[in-house]
Amino acid sequence: MGIVKKYLKSKPVCKVTFTVPAEEAKKVAVVGDFNNWNPKGSSLKKLKNGTFKGTLDLPKENTYEFRYLVDGNYVNEAEADRYQWNDYAGAENAVLDV
What we know:
The protein is mainly β. The protein has strands at residues 2-7, 13-21, 28-32, 45-46, 51-59, 63-70, 73-75, 82-86, 91-97. Strands 3, 6, 7, 8 and 9 form a five-stranded antiparallel sheet that branches.
């Protein structure tokens, strides 16, 4: 898995690219604070090599909790900036600082 952050000089936005290796998966989405944990509109595209990839524009100077939704199962990003316990989920969420 991986995250690449690209800050834009012209806008207060960070382009965040999420990459998830999941050859066997049918659907992968990234869900979090930035989209009210709704997988609609945040699906990642499956590439020929079996990884899923997608880019979201997120406002800078914010912190977001997020997880991947892989075929209905929540998965954390191994390369997250940090992790934070979430009582609602009963698990740790990955945290992204932009």
